[in-house]
Automatic annotation (TrEMBL):
Protein family (similarity comment): Belongs to the EPSP synthase family.
Classification via Gene3D superfamilies: Enolpyruvate transferase domain
Occurrences of domain Enolpyruvate transferase (ranges): 15-436
Active-site residues per Swiss-Prot or TrEMBL entry: D327
Enzyme Commission number(s) from the entry: 2.5.1.19
Pathway: Metabolic intermediate biosynthesis; chorismate biosynthesis; chorismate from D-erythrose 4-phosphate and phosphoenolpyruvate: step 6/7
Protein name: 3-phosphoshikimate 1-carboxyvinyltransferase
Keyword Transmembrane listed: no
Organism for this UniProt entry: Roseovarius phycicola
Domain of life: Bacteria
Residues annotated as binding 3-phosphoshikimate: K28, S29, R33, S174, Q176, D327, K354
Length: 448
């Protein structure tokens, strides 16, 4: 879906005593990958718990356009009948990935070693984001790309006729780039080897192994080296998508900053490549506990219990933790505003190339609400004002960015005056039930 139609202004108002259970939707990263890998094997893959947000629905559409048969039962079970590695059909329309960097980058990778051409576009946010980070390695496989200047969408990818396997060191910490290379490697004969210096989310590696690909990861002191053997016969799977820790972050952080709150967020995946926010919040002194810790589908899972935490302290977030919480910095900056002292976040320049420049978007809104924020290219800091110390009262721009919109809605639950966002419509990309779920806990979030 391109664009978000009519803007939805929203406001959030001081709320106390958030209580209850927050059943957040399925993991966005795992949902995209389930559909794409399901489309790349012959036979039926079934998926339960799929995130039915716009980003993932756009990926389902793209996979249909490339030949997969995808259906949904009334009970929410999805069925993907795939075309096999190398079996993608050439789409006869432009593929619109909407707001989704993950969708477009992974799909470009998946088709880049098939002898087809496809043209990709997105909404105003996605069409500003850098694509050279994926098209550079895809060229090594033999794919050609033509896009707008600066490597932006819309862009046509002409898949390699005779792909060759690739050895590639990912130059930025990005699971999307790593995954695009691995997915391209599936249809290249021989071994594709990807190296990353910082560990990023490893859902592609786990899921490729689950689908029967020959893939291994060697961890050294300096890096992770992932080796994939091309041209496997992937075997269809039955996938239960775990709930999304990045969505869980919103009710968790809301509970920490609103007086009298006690919220349970069950079944959250605590894969170490994703759980950095929760570690950070606990270091700040948050009353956040892991209950019922267990393993599900090879992933650590727990129920998160978050209670009002009036004594949180600002900390320096270790830069080597950045990749494991990259999407959570906006909402962390909100919590930091209610802690005592400074929270310093370094090694985070990737935040500047997400759906928006997230440092700039949050800094501008937080300052308008009375919070001191300083920033450099690769870092930012928030001066905490303690519980009750943040004024609010501003209208903040969401810049077509779901995480920015939701973060400001969490902010307004604990400020003196309400906080407004100009457009909450992008929330539907990753967390379509956000308003209902937060409302069920007692949060006062309104459409204006
Ligand atoms: O691979 C993924 O599913 C994702 C990787 C991250 O992006 P980068 O690879 O650009 O860091 C993250 O921000 C995004 O929400 C999802
Ligand atoms: C960065 C994000 O997503 P994407 O890159 O897929 O647009 C996100 O969900 O925070």
């Amino acid at each position: 879906m391109s664009g978000h139609g009519t803007p939805i202004p929203m406001s959030s108002h001081a709320s106390k005593g958030l209580k209850g259970q927050a059943d957040v939707p399925g993991d966005k990263s795992i949902s995209h990958r389930s559909l794409i890998l399901g489309a790349m094997c012959v036979g039926e893959t079934t998926i339960t718990g799929l995130l039915e947000g716009e980003d993932v629905l756009d990926t389902a559409k793209a996979m249909r356009a490339m030949g997969a048969d995808i259906t949904r039962d009334e009970d929410g079970t999805w069925h993907v009948y795939g075309v096999g590695v190398g079996g993608f059909a050439e789409p006869d329309q432009v593929i619109d990935c909407g707001n989704s960097g993950t969708g477009v980058r992974l799909i470009m990778g998946a088709m880049a070693t098939s002898p087809i051409a496809a043209t990709f576009t997105g909404d105003a946010s996605l069409n500003k984001r850098p694509m050279a980070r994926v098209t550079d390695p895809l060229a090594l496989f033999g794919a050609q790309t033509v896009g707008r200047s600066g490597g932006r969408l819309p862009m046509t990818v002409i898949g390699a006729q005779d792909p060759i396997p690739v050895r590639y060191e990912v130059p930025v910490p990005s699971a999307q780039v790593k995954s695009a290379v691995l997915l391209a490697g599936l249809n290249a004969p021989g071994q594709t080897i990807v190296t990353e210096r910082e560990a990023t989310r490893d859902h592609s590696e786990r899921m490729l192994a689950g689908f029967g690909a020959e893939i291994s990861t060697e961890v050294t002191n300096e890096c992770r080296i992932i080796t994939l053997t091309g041209r496997p016969e992937l075997k269809p799977q039955s996938i239960a998508v775990p709930r999304d820790p990045s969505s869980a972050a919103f009710p968790v952080c809301a509970a920490l900053i609103t007086e009298g709150s006690d919220v349970l967020v069950p079944n959250i995946g605590l894969n170490p490549t994703r759980a950095g926010l929760f570690t950070t919040l606990r270091e700040m002194g948050a009353d956040l506990t892991y209950e019922n810790e267990r393993e599900e589908g090879g992933e650590p899972v727990a129920d998160l219990r978050a209670r009002f935490s009036p004594d949180m302290k600002g900390i320096e977030v270790p830069p080597d933790r950045a990749a494991s919480m990259i999407d959570e910095y906006p909402v962390l900056s909100v919590v930091a505003a209610f802690a005592e002292g400074q929270t310093m976040m370094r090694g985070v320049k990737e935040l500047r190339v997400k759906e928006s420049d997230r440092i700039d978007a949050m800094a501008t809104g937080l300052r308008a609400c009375g919070v001191t924020v300083e920033e450099g290219e690769d870092w930012w800091s928030v001066e905490g004002r303690g519980i009750g110390g943040v004024q609010g009262g501003a209208t903040c721009a969401s810049h077509l960015d779901h995480r920015i919109a939701m973060s400001f809605m969490v902010l307004g639950l604990a400020t003196t005056k309400p906080v407004t966002v100009d457009d909450g419509s992008p929330i539907a990309t990753s967390f379509p039930i956000f308003e209902d779920l937060m409302g069920s806990l007692g949060a006062d979030i309104r459409r204006d």
